[in-house]
Structure formats: C-alpha cells, structure tokens
Protein 1
Amino acid sequence: MLARSGWSNPDGAPRASIQRVEYRLVEDRLERRVAPHLDGARAGPPQVLYRGVTEARVAFIQNGSEAPAFSASSDRPLPDAVRVTLTLDGFGPVEQLFLVAAA
C-alpha cells in the first residue's frame, strides 16, 4: 500500500488531495485499488492494469544496497528508491525505478 499525493479534485469533492493506493497480483492480473482517504476508508473495486503478469518483485534501495523489505527509522524514514520488476507473459521482465524524494 502506498500514499499518493497530488490527486486532482476539479469538482471540489469533499476529500483530501492524498489517496491510499494498493497494488496486488491476483492470478495473472496486476490490480490497483484506491481508497479516497488515508484513515481506513474502504478501497473501491479493483481496476485491472495488466493481464499476463507471471511474477512481481519489489526491492528497496538504501545506500546502494537492495533488500526485499525496508525498515524505517527516525533518521531514515524512507528508502532512497524502490525498484519494481514485473515479468510479463510473452515479453519478459519490465523494470521501473522510483526515486523517493527526501522529506
């Protein structure tokens, strides 16, 4: 689960500009579910982003080293980057590196 800021609100709906986003792999589908609030509001129905995903991996990068999990601390609340690798049926691995802004 992630928190995403910058959620556009052109209609002025009564909600925050931050939303909770959950990505999950269900069978061969990459799905996204979004909750309108961070405070435990129920997420909406899943939206299928891609079919044919055979594997999903996440790695957290800290000081040049990668690990499958990240433990936040008071002096380092966020990793330097997050690497997401999806293996797609008929295509192979696709990798995206997300740099994490310093707080």
Note: The beta strands are 2-5, 18-26, 29-35, 47-51, 53-62, 65-67, 81-88, 92-99.
Protein 2
Amino acid sequence: MLAASKRYPELVTMLCPPPFGLRADLLVKKILAENYIGRPHHVRLQSFTGNYLDPDAPAHWRQKIEISGLNTLTLGIYVEVLQRWIGDITGVFARGKIIDPIREGYEVIVPDLLTVLCSFENGAEGVLEFSGINALTSGDRLEIYGSAGALAYDFTSDVLQAGKTGDRALHLVDIPQELEGEWRVEEDFLAAVKSKGRVRPHPNFEDGLRYMRVVQAVADSRGRNEWVAIKRSM
C-alpha cells in the first residue's frame, strides 16, 4: 500500500488513527516540545484488561492470528501513540505468555500478556505492559519521566497530569478548548480530498510502516528471545 501510494501521489491516502489520546494529543505534544519535563528518559505504559480471564470463553478475534496478524492486545495502537508523542522506537526485547492455550478447540498462539522493553530514538528507555488477564484493573495509563519533571496520561478517562521537579505531586492539566482533539477521521479525510493535495492527513502509510516495524520486531524478539534493533530507513 505504501508503494502504491507513492506511485499515485495525487491521490489522498490515510490510515484510521487510534482513538486513544486524541483529546489531549496537541497539548501533550506542546508540553513535550516546550521541554516542560526536560529530556524524557523513562517511559511506562500499562494497558490492562480482564477480557480473557474466563478460560471457558471462546477465543476473541484479537486472539486469532489469522485475523489480527502479529499484533498482540493493544500493542500496535499504543506504539502509534508513543511514536507520535515521543519519537521512533529503535529496539525492543519482548516476552509474552499464553494462559489458556485452548479455547473451545481453538489453539491460541497470541499471548494473553506481553511485556516489552524498548529504546527510543531520543535516548529514552521504556517499559510497555499489556494484558488481557488482569482482574480489577483501573484503565490504561502512560507515564513519562524527564530530567525536569513528569507527565501522566490516563487514556481511560482522558485526564492529563504533569509536574516539575520539586512539586509535591502531579497536578491536573486543563486542556484548552483550542487544543482539544476529537474523533473526526471521516471529516478529516473528506477535507483532504476536497483540498486537492493541499492537505495531507495523518496517519499515512509511512506512519503505518513505522509502527508495523515495531510490531514485527516485538514478534521477532519473542520468537528468538533476544534484543531486536529496528531499522529506520524507509
């Protein structure tokens, strides 16, 4: 699809963006660009649900590799968000585990839980945790720790918090109306088509390739039990 889009640059192309983090997307980018938390050095992401706790339930479509491919749980969705906010992931080491390998006669080979250690192009290190077998979870959360402060985003409630070194705790960050994002994928795509090439919407196929490289690297790392570097060239 990327090659085809380059052969016909006059046509508008766009991938469907993840809904997570859209509300504060512009504000998070602004906070990081203004170095409010300094240089990011530690990233923590947790995406936990209890969707797969019932061992007698049939396999969910996300547990079927013939449907979901190499993607595991919400890995691909959050990789796209992370790379949009923090920059490219340059290497990964991943471990996964299947808790209930047989569901109504179907053999599950997609992990029920996944842990990814990763490095970013800007030098930050990350720990990304995904699970479908965690009871009593409180939602999905991202924490970014920098040389001058920290930022936390609750994807479930769309609440943004931040703080500087020396503060007693993180404080709530109000999202200005002019920076507040919303789901308008169809509207954005149609506007790009009507612009006759003046507007190029995102994510595009280059963005998709960037996060699929990470998804592939995570699968390779799990399979080989080793660190996998991610090539940057297009």
Note: The mean pLDDT is 92.
Protein 3
Amino acid sequence: MAQLHRAEPTGQRAWSEAEFSAMLSANNALSVTCDAGFAVGQVILDEAELFLIMT
C-alpha cells in the first residue's frame, strides 16, 4: 500500500509503511484491497470514515 501511495502523485505527503501498519492494526480499522487499488478507513459505532482511496 505504501509503495502504491508513494507512486501516485496526489499532491499530498504519502503515508509511510509505519503509518499504514499503525492504522491497519487498530481494532476499528477498515481496509479493502483489489488489483486496481485500495481503500483505508475506520469504523466507530454506526459510522465509517474513509481516509484514503487509491486506484
């Protein structure tokens, strides 16, 4: 994920491997991956927030 995020020119600082690891190790982490990209977020009670969508 970190490699794909670094390779895509988003105009924002790319997340490091450590940042992805910390986010995804949380109990409320949400991630969806496929050949075309990924999405990362979190679930809190009855709400979900997407932090990053890469395609």
Note: The beta strands are 29-34, 37-44, 47-54.
